[in-house]
Structures are given as C-alpha cells and as structure tokens.
Amino acid sequence: MANAVLADASSSASVNPTLIAVEHTSSETIKLVLSGDVSIVSRFCYFDEPLAIEELPLTLTESQTEYLYQAGRRFLAEKQAAAYLNRAEHSSYQLTVKLQKKGYIKNEYQPALDYLRAEGTLDDSRFAGAYLHTRSLSKKEGHARLFSELRKRGVAADTAKQALNDFFTEIDEAEVCEGAARSLIRKGYTEQKLYSALQRKGFPFSMIKRCLTRLSSAAS
Questions:
Q1: Model pTM score
Q2: Is the dihedral of CA 190, 195, 198, 200 positive or negative?
Q3: Please, which of 13, 64, 122, 188 could form a disulfide with 116 given CB 3.0 to 4.6 Å?
Q4: Alpha helix positions (H), 106-204
C-alpha cells in the first residue's frame, strides 16, 4: 500500500476518496487508509480540524480531503526536516529553504518546524553553538564576522549574540586575532593590507593594533 501524500492535494481532493480504515499507530500519530490503495500518516496536531468519523467506510467531502492531505504533507515535511537534522545541525531558516526547494509550502512546513522546535529537535541556539565551534576549526575570525555569518543563516540577533558571548567566554578573541595575524604575515601581508584583512575577519581595530604591537615586540 502506498504511503502517499500527493503533491497536488487540490486535484486529489476533487476525487472525493473513501476512508476505509483508521489505525492509531501511536498516541500522537494516525494512519488513514483510503480507497485507491493510498494511506496517509500524520500527527493529530497537524489537522486544522478533527476528522469526524461515525462509521466506515466514509466518503470524504472536498474540505475533509483537503485537510487530510494537508496534514499528511505536514508530517512528510517533518520527516524530511528531521532527516536533515540527523545529518547535521540546521537553523530554522536553512530548513525552511531546503523544504521550499522540496516543494513544500509555508502552510505545510511551518507547523512541522514548530513541532520540531517544541520537541527540542530544532534549536537555533544549539545550531549557532555548533556552527561557531565547527567554523573555528578552520577559520580564525572575530566577533563581528561571526555575528554576520550567523545572521546570514537566519539566526536571530539575540540568539547570535548569546551564542557568541558563550563562545568567547571559552575562547580568547585576542588570541584568535593573534593567530589570524600570524597566518596572514606568513602569507606576506604587511601594514595596511594586514590591518584591512584582520578587520574583514571581524576583529575590532583596537584589538588588531594591540595584537600587532605584541607581535612586533616579540619579533624585535
């Protein structure tokens, strides 16, 4: 039996399928078996309106069919998002973009993301922390650049600021700046080009000046 939620729910709704069986697969999920060898699985929370069932088989109205297929699409969006999260942390924005590319519309993916967020599976704060740790392994960047990178990934400003505060509580930004400066000096950067490159990496001018003064003193 196909576990299918058709991409075009509106065209499917015009068929007015018959509901043949209902199975409660868990306390939160339900499986609806329809005519045409189709089954739809979803969570109760994904139904905008409860499906009134007095007896089976039940020929569904157009609106009932639409609600049913919509609930199924939301469940599929949740499963797709969970698959992405199983591979790596994602921000809500990143998942939104990926689900849109998969053909889900806002009314389908938003309830799914809300559910994952409520369950703690999706957490922008956790994503931000993981992102900063991973990026620090290959790049030496300051607060301003990292804040910008988090914002590009859809992390809210307050969440990004808190993640950065936590990150730089454990890591000394001045030491990161010094490491970045050493790396650039080895590549031949000097004077104004060195200052400009470090500023692009997100370090404040005052920190750059102190860092380069220390390096100059150590070298003399």
A1: 0.87
A2: negative
A3: 122
A4: 106-119, 124-136, 143-152, 157-170, 173-186, 191-200
